[in-house]
Amino acid sequence: MGPHPAVAAIRLAVRRVLKDVLNEVPADAPAPPLVLVACSGGADSMALASALAFEAPRAGVRAGAVTVDHGLQAGSDARAREVTERLTALGLDPAEAVAVAVGRAGGPEAAARAARYAALDDAAERHRACAVLLGHTRDDQAETVLLGLARGSGIRSLSGMAAVSGSLTGAPGAAQRYRRPFLAVDRQTTRKACLVQSLPVWDDPHNADPAFTRSRVRHEALPVLEKTLGRGIVEALARTARLSRDDADALDDWARQAQRAATRPDGTLEIAALHDLPPAVRRRVLRRAAIAAGAPAGSLFARHIEETDRLITAWRGQRPLNLPGRVEARRQGGRLVLEQAGQ
């Protein structure tokens, strides 16, 4: 008799990712590659840890785990040790807890996320892991799409989380470090998989705290949408993420080609080469050029790009624009110049 359907589903998802990881490892590698799982002790990441522990030996991969103690709740250090003991009992080695200091930049959710990924990057580099698995599910993807829609940031913000992504800290050699095997698996399946395997799970109270935006989306916004539009809304939002990512990737590739064609030897942009591009492509070119000139990506908003775009499409002798990062955008003859003020 085979495993419970929920257990079979999580193992299959991990098996597919391990196959992809192995295809990227050199055939003459001196030792079996190490794959880490980031585990908070919640149902999603415990299910992922159990599936990795089962599938890794069968794939010829070493499996380890990291749990991050954010220090935001009383007793978090003891809970991190408990999670580490559970991971060790599953057969994961190394299995370690890492304590981090969470700052304030960008708000509590963003600060915790930045600290967590920095810790995971450090662990991956110390242990020379080839990949880190994350337990984000289809439900998490749906929430991310709704949050992106609320920000009004364009199609890229609707594309949600990528199945494969690089380091947020810019760590070298980590372009494809993070893998999300469960983006097509719903949260109910991961919880059921833990239940039937008798895996203890910890429910983070922050996930139910209305002070956090994602918690409100999870417990208030999505249930209202399901009640109004039907229970297929989570799957529909996740599908929107996949389709949006394909479109955004295509537009970004077009923009890279257009930027190369429009860039003059002195680094300025040729107005004539930009003017007749579709707005979605032209504005991507301008954003890329502004970031290359020194504008911080996180501070560069749609209004900045729209104002810069008017230097091309609605030129009436405007004064130079001041963009974040002390970057100045100005039209000079038939060229668009983006550079830091004072250069």
TrEMBL record:
CDD domains: TilS_N. Its main location: cytoplasm. It catalyses: cytidine(34) in tRNA(Ile2) + L-lysine + ATP = lysidine(34) in tRNA(Ile2) + AMP + diphosphate + H(+). It is found in: Cytoplasm. Keywords: ATP-binding, Cytoplasm, Ligase, Nucleotide-binding, tRNA processing. It is an enzyme of class 6 (ligase). GO terms for molecular function: tRNA(Ile)-lysidine synthase activity. Residues 269-336 form the tRNA(Ile)-lysidine synthase substrate-binding domain. It holds the Pfam family ATP_bind_3. It comes from the Bacteria. Residues 35-220 form the tRNA(Ile)-lysidine/2-thiocytidine synthase N-terminal domain. InterPro entries: Rossmann-like_a/b/a_fold, TilS/TtcA_N, tRNA_Ile_lys_synt, tRNA_Ile_lys_synt_N, tRNA_Ile_lys_synt_subst-bd. Its EC number is 6.3.4.19. ATP binds at residues 40-45. Belongs to the tRNA(Ile)-lysidine synthase family. Ligates lysine onto the cytidine present at position 34 of the AUA codon-specific tRNA(Ile) that contains the anticodon CAU, in an ATP-dependent manner. Cytidine is converted to lysidine, thus changing the amino acid specificity of the tRNA from methionine to isoleucine. The N-terminal region contains the highly conserved SGGXDS motif, predicted to be a P-loop motif involved in ATP binding. This is tRNA(Ile)-lysidine synthase. The gene is tilS.
